[in-house]
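Sample A.
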Amino acid sequence: MIGVDIIFILIGGLMLLVGLYSLMRTINFVRKAQQVKGTVIRMVGKHKRGSGSGARIDYYAVYKFTTLDGQTIEKEDSVSSDPPRFQEGQMIDVLYQPNKPQNSHIKHGIHLYLAPIGLIGVGFIFVVVGVVLVTYHLS
């Protein structure tokens, strides 16, 4: 039977691997991306169920930009906020892949890196807890 300690190490290791893979993909995207100016054309509010006090609204920016070869792209950002992070008409920096401009993201600081770094951090904690448990059981 597999112990809790080994399960912690396995889950943590998997989270570390997925986080590192995601981080490498993000770094590769940013390195190959073109940067252009774009405009937030509207904010879309989506209801999310909250704990305790009921529903809340998360706001997603819908933005438009023109690629270096003149193609106009409109996309909803994948990062939400409450309150809204952007205003309609606001100028933004957009990163996009030249060969697939629909693969674009608003360049807003560390947000592109939050998910991979979070997975790596939680994975590391799981591995450390698992190793501590193994060490405790062996002593």
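Sample B, a different protein:
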Amino acid sequence: MIRKLFLLLVSILVIVIILVPTQSDYFQRLEDDFGETHHSVALDKEMLKEMGEFEYRNKLVFSQFDYSFGKISVSYYGFFNLILFRGSRIEDPKNNEITV
């Protein structure tokens, strides 16, 4: 009984690990999201890789992906082959100069 339960748990863990989204999956989602936002401009995965900076982190049962281009950055996380949008940010540096 304990052996069957152990095998079931190990099998579930292996399936979860296999279904963690890869870096390529995140770039596909980024490409799709970019296409939805900017209808007149189309970028493929390779162009997105060259244009921006990205960080992919695999945490065994889930993964995270951050991409930034200029002042814009987006974040995703994924598990079970699902990629969820975590948030976006536009960085606007404060200008401390006073002009008269």
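Observation for Sample B: The chain has a mean pLDDT of 88.
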